[in-house]
Amino acid sequence: MLYTYICPQELPQFSSKQLLSSEHHDEYPLSSYITPPPPPIISYPALFRIGALDLERNRTVRTVFIMIAADNSYLDNAALPSGESPELVLVQATPEERIAAIKLNSPAWKGPLDLDAYIARENHLAQQALTKDGLTSWLLVVRGQPEGERTILSSCETYKKKAILAQNGRVEHVSALSIGSVFCRPEFRGKGYAKRMMQELVKKIDMWQTEPKATNRMPFSLLYSDIGKKFYAQFGWMPYPSTHFSLPPLPKDEYDRAIVRGNLPKARTLVAEDVHRFMCNIDVVQKELDILRVASQKSASAKVAVVPDFDHFKWHWAREEYYAKILFKDRAPPLIKGAGDEQSKVYCSWNRNFGETPEENTLYILRWVYDEPTSSEETEKTAKAMAAIIRRAQLEAHAWNMSKVQFWNPTPVLERAVAILDPTAQVVHREQDSVACLRWSGAEQGKNVEWLWNEKYAWC
């Protein structure tokens, strides 16, 4: 879109860069310089491409084409390229462009935080052990635009994670790619940018698979769709079981009565060190590998899992502790990270997720660890221990103003545990939000893939 930049003699003759720098906004508003006044969609800084310079009666007239830097918008959607344009490319964001992308997606995901706190949260999470060396921010941009001045048409992030692949009794340590923060700004939607971005990302993932110098295989990638099951399926991310139980919080008096009434053992609480000791120790890791190995011997399909290591739990806790520090300034940080029953060797880890409204606050059980029962007697004992642990989670949810307790993809023994607590509780099948999706790239293992431990811990 063309605009005329008129600079009267009595006003300073700023360069286009000076004109839009923040120090001049209040004294000399943009509307004083540009005619017709630009629509309110424009914000600072913008990229001015000077077309002509003429002198006419004590004023400078400049015709300019206004594009955007990484955190602004086109003034006219008609100027936007098509999502099918050969000029669009997927690039890695510079640190500054990453922040610009975070600013753009903040209305969707910042929740109760203000913008500065949201950016600080994202930077804090990026420095955690889980993500520090494996996080990449991606932008869909127009080819040829210089860094720092590229228009963000769409954006996403990828996280490289430790994973396991098992087939025919053989267990292999591999990597997986987790895709998150897929975002297209509202004013740019309908152009096909998100689709093009995912197409370009698939090309990169497949190219990495065939690189001769690749030292760590990435036979699969995963994401959690908040827009249903169809969009990502067209690129190969197929929906997997996405179910959960949702139970209400319990105040202390109700919790005490429920434990007595149900004749349940009293679960012990776990701090971070306990979670590491009971859920991430060498014996547990070996059992997990054995489970995958045995499962892979029973069928020809490949078995995959994201490694449920301590770094995953720490990432989720870093997130909840950041929110707690801001939202509960006068309260000690949340130290209780899970619960367990040592006699039955049943444990879980959880985190508190603070939403935009209190109704969205959720205590998520991230992961369950237990020995699979081999008899009806063991099943009942394990289920009662799980029921006691769930009750403790409900108590913790009440203490932190959580509206519900959730855990994903419950096994039959967990379903039995919930039935002990509430025979009317129903498994929820998610169709639109947090739909677990997996894309398989390991062609040599065939197309049938089973995703084990598809629990909340793997989400980020």
TrEMBL record:
Name one molecular function that GO assigns to this entry: acyltransferase activity, transferring groups other than amino-acyl groups
Q: Specify one Pfam family.
A: GNAT_LYC1-like
Record-linked PROSITE patterns: GNAT
- Taking every annotated instance into account, which residue ranges of this chain make up the domain N-acetyltransferase? 88-271
Q: Which residues cross the membrane?
A: none
Report the superkingdom from the record.
Eukaryota
Q: What is this protein called?
A: N-acetyltransferase domain-containing protein
What organism does the UniProt record list as the source?
A: Aspergillus caelatus
